[in-house]
Amino acid sequence: MTQELILETRGLTKEFRGFTAVDDVNLKVQEGHIHALIGPNGAGKTTVFNLLTKFLPPTRGEILYRGKPITRMKANEIARLGLVRSFQISAVFGHMTALENVRVALQRKLGTSFHFWKSERSLDHLNDRAMELLDEVGLAEYADVLTVEMPYGRKRALEVATTLALEPTMMLLDEPTQGMGAEDVDRIVELIRRVSAGRTVLMVEHNLSVVSRLCDRITVLARGAVLAEGDYQEVSRNPQVREAYMGSEAAAEEASA
């Protein structure tokens, strides 16, 4: 697997009226890896995601994508570069079918999202690709189902399909298994493993079982700063991580399991 960096931050810092939410973070994500950001509540994980995807401007520091600075670029500009984010709360249209949701995402990629005057039949050429994407995430049988009627785990899978429609080279997944039962978690883990082929994934994830099964490398944040970095075995044995992330006793049990 290639060792080239696809995403890097240098001294990334975000302050809110004197409170430092992200503190001098130097993140290096290797191309082709599944890389996790973990940490306790309030560690700064989602703020880092918001900085990377331009929903927040940094106070200081640089963000580089494929070696080029993107610190001052806008959200839509970095999405066009192939850096695409999937949100913590499912971001699909409830009263549209699964197929229609994916088709809307395909329209965004084509730049025709706002052509409201066009006949719906003019979009039929997108159906084949939309069905391919639904099949890729295991949702072909849900094509004509309204999203509001789909189980929660399948909605998250649909969100992955809409993300894939934008043809990302790097996907940022924010808590992809939050609120799921074990069966849905297993399904999403396999889905992420499958769609990561040929792509890079950076994910915020609270479920350490998911992290241990999926991730090549892990960055641990605490109070906005990088506490540790390494593979799962390295990170799970780190006493500072056990203390900060899970509490020393629970982490010791996890590490010895």
UniProtKB/TrEMBL annotation:
One of its GO terms (cellular component) is plasma membrane. Keywords: ATP-binding, Nucleotide-binding, Transport. Pfam families: ABC_tran, BCA_ABC_TP_C. It comes from the Bacteria. CDD domains: ABC_Mj1267_LivG_branched (cd03219). Residues 7-248 form the ABC transporter domain. InterPro entries: AAA+_ATPase (IPR003593), ABC_AA/LPS_Transport (IPR051120), ABC_transporter-like_ATP-bd (IPR003439), BCA_ABC_TP_C (IPR032823), P-loop_NTPase (IPR027417). GO terms for molecular function: ATP binding; ATP hydrolysis activity. Gene3D superfamilies: P-loop containing nucleotide triphosphate hydrolases. This is ATP-binding cassette domain-containing protein. It comes from Halomonas icarae. The lineage of its organism: Bacteria, Pseudomonadati, Pseudomonadota, Gammaproteobacteria, Oceanospirillales.
